[in-house]
Specification:
This protein is mainly beta and 139 residues long. It is 6% helix and 40% strand.
């Protein structure tokens, strides 16, 4: 599936303020309906338009396996393990990655491009490279 990812504006600011540590903070991913108003101005986790369904708990699921790398030039990047809601049958349009350790502050929004329905709903993370990783920062 083609996805569109954007770091939230608040996350970009908070990185320079030293608020987030993606290697040690507890991160979660929540799923939302096609009517979700998530975008780059979303500042914290919200229950508004969060999905419901078999195998899904409000707030989503913990995201693990954070790795921070750089390409030796101008780009730093972060990726995570794939995220799966086991024993689920869900429909979602987008997801919010957020930091539970820091008052549920948002990190990024992932738009799937259309509603996606599947059993054992899984978000497959892109390759962990400076051009494809989920979160990238460059000059």
């Amino acid at each position: 599936m083609s996805i569109i990812q954007t770091q939230t504006t608040s996350f970009k600011t908070e990185l320079y303020e030293g608020i987030h540590n993606l290697l040690s903070d507890t991160l979660y991913m929540a799923l939302y309906t096609g009517n979700a108003s998530l975008n780059n101005t979303t500042t914290v986790y919200t229950t508004s338009n969060e999905i419901t369904g078999t195998g899904y708990t409000a707030g989503g699921i913990q995201v693990t396996g954070a790795t921070v790398s750089n390409d030796g030039n101008y780009t730093a990047y972060v990726n995570f393990n794939n995220v799966t809601w086991p024993n689920s049958n869900l429909t979602a349009r987008c997801a919010l990655l957020y930091n539970v350790s820091k008052s549920n502050r948002s990190i990024c929004v992932i738009d799937f491009g259309s509603n996606k329905t599947m059993a054992n709903f899984t978000i497959t993370m892109p390759a962990n490279t400076s051009t494809t990783a989920l979160i990238r920062s460059s000059n």
